[in-house]
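pls design
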C-alpha cells in the first residue's frame, strides 16, 4: 500500500521538485499532492494525519538596464526569495520553523577588450544584480556551462516570515523548474557520460520528481510526452518492453517506492489506481481487480467508488511523477518517435546501448517506406505500397521468432493419449511466449546440449508442434514415432523453425490483385482502391420478405436491425457490418451465410476470419443450420490442436471417407512411422482425391484468411466471401480470400475493438 499524507485544503508549492498541486475537491478528481512521509515497510507509508509539511517559495524580480563604457546592454535582476515553513509535527519531537531572508548580491562585469573585471558585492537585503556587457547572453562567452555555479543557501537566521503573494507563484514555478541540483541544470543532454544515472534514457531529463525507473529493465524515464503526441516516455517504454513495474526516485517526494497494491501486492502499474481515505486524509493504492472482487475492502473507510487509475491519457498522474516543465524540455534531447523505436529495438540485443549508438556506422539505415493511403492509382500502386510493409513485418517476425533459441532448457517428458511423446518446457525468459506471439501449431526443434550429448552417447534432435501453452510452459508434441531421450531432462537446446507461409500468401494475393483481372469484380477492385464508384445492386438477389423467411433452423430469431442488415447485404456486392460486442454479429453472420447459400448460381460460400478461434465459433454456428460445412485447418494445426469443431475438419473427415485401401495405408503408417515410396505415392493420391471430393460437396468452407491460400483450394473459385472480425486483419491478409474470384464481399467486425496484430513498430 502507498498511504500518502496530505492536507486537504492547503496549497503546496515545492519549486525544487517541480511540484505545484492545488487540492480543492477530491470528489472532482483533484489529485492529492504528495507530502513528506516516513516509510514503514515496502507497502505501507506513514498515515499520521498530524504530519504536515508545506513549502512556499516565491520570487520577486525586477529589471534594470545599465550601460558600460564598452557598449552592450547590462541587466540587473534583484531576486528576493521568501521562504515560509509550516509546522512539522512528528510524534517524537516538535520543531517550529518560521524564517525569511533576503539575499542581496551585486555583481558587475565589465568586458574590456584588454582586461575583464568582475566585481561582486554583498550587502544587507541580499538582492542580486548582474551587469553584463557585450550583450545579454553570458553563456556566449562561457561555453562550459558547468563553470557557472551560483548557490543560494538558506541562512540560519530566524527572521520574520514574509506574506505569501499568489501573484508570484507563476514566477516561482518558472525560476525553479530545472532540478534540485543547480550544477546539473546546464549538463549537455547529448553528453550521456555526464548525465546522472537516473536521467531519462530517451531525452536526458534528470529531475528526480519527473523520472521513474522501470524495474524489469532497470532504465529511467521521465513523464514527458513522446514526439508527435501519444504516451509519455515512461509509459511508451513500459509498453514496448512489455514491463509493468515502476519505482520512484529516492529524492522524489514519495521516496524510492515501488508502486504496488495494498491488498494483494500486485506491482502492475497499468492496473493500479488510488482511492481516497477521507478519515485519515490519505490515498491508498489498490489494483482494479481488488476493487472489483474483494468484498472486505468495502468495510474500510475508503471511497472505492472514486477509484482512479494511476495511468491516465497514457501518462502517469502528475502528482506521482511530475511532467517536466517547458524549460526542462527545451534543454532535453530532441528525438523523434522513429529514434525512440530504434532505441527500443536496439535494447533488445544491446541492453546498455545509448542514444549516441544510433549514429554508429553498423546501424541499419531507415528505409523510406511509402505510407498507406486512402486512394491508390491502380493495383500496381497498391502492391508497391503494401508489399514493402508486409516484407518488413515478415523480417521482424523472423528475427523475433528465431531469437527464441535458448540453451540449458529443462524438459519434462510425457506421453499423450495417442501414445506420442510430449515435451513440456519453459524458455526461462519473461519474453518467451507472450512477446514472440508463439502460437499453438508453431513448429519447434529440440536438440541435446553438449553435456547431454556426452551423457546420451550421441547427438539427437527432433521436431514437433506446439500443442498448448499453459502458464508460460510450452507443450510440444513430437513428430511421428521419433525415439526421444526421455531419461534426460536437462541441457536441451530449443530452436524456433520460422516459416514464411502466411507472408508469402499475402504477397501472392497482392500480386494477383494487381495482374489478374478475374481475381475480383471491377466494382470490388475500384472500391478497395478508394475510387469513386456508383452504387450497385444485385438484381437476382433473393431477399426474405417476412420474419418467418428470415428465421434459420438452429439459430435464434433476428431482431429488426439484424434483419435489415441481412436484407441489405444480400443485395449489395460489397458490404460492411459493424456492431459493438453483444449485438449478435456471429448469429447475424451465420444467418447471412445460410441465405447466401440459397442464392441462385452463386456456388459455395467461403467464410474466413483472421484467428482460428473466430473461425471455429462461426463454423459451429453455421453447422447448426444444417448446411454442409467443412473446416479447413492448416497442416501444423492438424497435428496439435483440439477444437469443438474437429468433427467438421477436413483432416478428420478424410480418413473416414477415403475407403478401405486408404485406411489400411493409414494404419500401416501409424505403426511403422513411414511408408515405402510406392505406398506413399498411393497414400497421397488417395488423400488428395478424397479431400477434393469433400471440399466440392460442401456448401460452406471455413478457414482463416491465411488459410484461404492453402494449396488444397488452389483451383476453387468463390463468388461469395465473408470475413468475420475483419478489423483484426491487415489489408494484405484480408485480400487473400477476396482474390479467389469474389463477386460479393461481406466484412463483419467492430473497429472500436481489437485491431490487427502488427509486431514491427517501425
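designed seq:
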Amino acid at each position: 500500500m502507498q498511504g500518502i499524507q496530505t492536507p486537504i485544503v492547503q496549497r503546496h508549492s515545492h519549486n525544487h521538485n517541480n511540484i505545484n498541486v492545488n487540492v480543492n475537491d477530491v470528489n472532482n478528481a483533484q489529485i492529492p499532492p504528495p507530502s513528506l512521509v516516513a516509510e514503514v515497510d515496502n507497502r505501507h507509508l506513514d498515515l499520521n494525519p498530524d504530519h504536515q509539511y508545506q513549502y512556499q517559495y516565491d520570487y520577486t524580480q525586477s529589471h534594470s538596464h545599465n550601460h558600460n563604457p564598452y557598449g552592450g546592454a547590462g541587466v540587473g535582476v534583484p531576486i528576493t526569495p521568501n521562504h515560509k515553513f509550516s509546522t512539522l509535527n512528528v510524534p517524537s519531537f516538535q520543531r517550529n520553523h518560521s524564517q525569511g531572508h533576503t539575499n542581496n548580491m551585486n555583481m558587475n562585469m565589465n568586458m574590456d577588450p584588454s582586461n575583464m573585471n568582475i566585481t561582486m558585492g554583498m550587502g544587507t537585503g541580499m538582492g542580486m544584480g548582474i551587469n553584463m556587457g557585450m550583450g545579454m547572453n553570458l553563456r556566449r562567452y562561457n561555453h562550459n556551462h558547468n563553470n557557472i555555479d551560483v548557490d543560494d543557501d538558506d541562512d540560519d537566521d530566524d527572521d520574520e516570515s514574509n506574506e505569501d503573494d499568489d501573484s508570484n507563484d507563476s514566477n516561482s514555478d518558472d525560476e525553479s523548474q530545472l532540478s534540485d541540483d543547480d550544477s546539473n541544470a546546464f549538463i549537455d543532454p547529448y553528453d550521456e557520460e555526464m548525465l546522472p544515472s537516473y536521467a531519462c534514457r530517451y531525452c536526458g531529463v534528470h529531475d528526480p520528481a519527473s523520472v521513474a525507473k522501470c524495474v524489469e529493465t532497470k532504465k529511467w524515464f521521465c513523464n514527458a510526452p513522446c514526439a508527435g503526441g501519444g504516451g509519455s516516455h515512461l509509459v511508451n517504454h513500459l509498453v514496448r518492453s512489455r514491463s509493468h513495474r515502476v519505482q520512484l526516485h529516492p529524492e522524489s517526494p514519495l521516496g524510492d517506492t515501488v508502486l504496488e497494491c495494498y491488498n494483494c501486492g500486485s506491482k502492475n502499474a497499468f492496473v493500479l489506481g488510488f482511492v481516497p481515505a477521507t478519515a485519515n486524509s490519505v490515498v491508498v493504492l489498490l489494483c482494479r481487480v481488488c476493487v472489483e472482487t474483494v468484498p472486505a475492502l468495502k468495510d474500510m473507510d475508503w471511497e472505492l467508488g472514486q477509484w482512479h487509475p494511476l495511468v491516465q491519457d497514457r501518462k502517469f498522474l502528475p502528482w506521482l511523477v511530475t511532467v517536466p516543465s517547458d524549460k526542462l524540455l527545451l534543454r532535453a534531447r530532441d528525438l523523434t518517435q522513429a529514434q525512440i523505436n530504434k532505441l527500443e529495438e536496439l535494447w533488445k540485443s544491446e541492453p546498455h546501448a545509448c542514444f549516441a549508438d544510433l549514429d554508429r556506422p553498423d546501424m541499419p539505415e531507415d528505409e523510406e517506406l511509402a505510407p498507406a493511403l486512402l486512394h491508390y492509382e491502380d493495383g500496381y500502386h497498391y502492391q508497391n505500397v503494401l508489399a514493402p510493409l508486409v516484407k518488413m513485418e515478415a523480417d521482424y517476425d523472423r528475427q523475433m521468432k528465431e531469437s527464441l533459441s535458448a540453451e540449458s532448457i529443462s524438459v519434462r517428458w510425457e506421453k499423450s493419449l495417442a501414445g506420442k511423446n510430449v515435451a513440456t518446457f519453459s524458455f526461462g525468459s519473461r519474453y518467451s511466449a507472450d512477446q514472440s506471439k508463439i502460437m499453438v501449431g508453431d513448429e519447434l526443434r529440440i536438440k541435446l546440449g553438449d553435456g547431454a550429448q556426452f551423457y546420451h552417447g550421441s547427438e539427437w534432435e527432433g521436431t514437433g508442434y506446439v500443442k498448448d501453452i499453459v502458464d508460460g510452459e510450452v507443450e510440444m508434441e513430437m513428430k511421428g514415432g521419433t525415439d526421444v531421450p526421455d531419461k534426460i531432462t536437462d541441457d536441451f537446446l530449443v530452436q524456433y523453425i520460422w516459416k514464411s507461409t502466411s507472408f508469402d500468401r499475402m504477397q501472392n494475393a497482392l500480386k494477383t490483385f494487381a495482374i489478374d483481372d478475374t481475381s475480383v469484380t471491377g466494382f470490388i477492385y475500384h472500391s478497395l482502391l478508394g475510387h469513386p464508384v456508383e452504387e450497385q445492386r444485385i438484381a437476382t438477389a433473393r431477399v426474405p420478405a417476412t420474419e418467418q423467411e428470415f428465421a434459420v433452423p438452429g439459430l435464434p430469431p433476428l431482431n429488426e436491425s439484424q434483419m435489415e442488415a441481412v436484407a441489405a447485404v444480400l443485395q449489395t456486392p460489397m458490404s460492411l457490418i459493424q456492431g459493438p460486442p453483444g449485438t449478435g454479429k456471429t448469429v447475424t453472420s451465420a444467418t447471412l451465410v445460410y441465405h447466401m447459400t440459397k442464392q441462385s448460381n452463386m456456388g459455395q460460400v467461403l467464410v474466413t476470419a483472421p484467428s482460428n478461434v473466430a473461425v471455429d465459433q462461426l463454423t459451429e454456428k453455421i453447422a447448426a443450420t444444417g448446411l454442409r460445412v467443412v473446416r479447413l485447418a492448416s497442416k501444423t494445426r492438424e497435428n496439435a490442436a483440439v477444437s469443438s469443431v474437429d468433427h467438421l475438419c477436413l483432416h478428420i473427415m478424410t480418413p473416414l471417407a477415403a475407403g478401405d485401401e486408404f485406411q489400411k495405408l493409414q494404419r500401416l503408417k501409424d505403426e511403422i512411422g513411414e511408408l515405402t515410396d510406392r505406398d506413399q505415392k498411393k497414400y497421397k493420391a488417395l488423400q488428395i482425391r478424397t479431400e477434393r471430393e469433400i471440399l466440392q460437396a460442401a456448401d460452406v468452407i471455413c478457414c482463416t484468411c491465411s488459410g484461404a491460400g492453402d494449396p488444397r483450394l488452389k483451383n476453387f473459385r468463390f463468388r461469395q466471401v465473408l470475413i468475420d472480425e475483419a478489423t483484426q486483419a491487415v489489408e494484405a491478409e484480408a485480400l487473400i480470400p477476396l482474390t479467389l474470384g469474389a463477386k460479393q464481399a461481406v466484412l463483419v467486425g467492430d473497429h472500436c475493438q481489437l485491431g490487427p496484430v502488427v509486431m514491427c513498430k517501425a
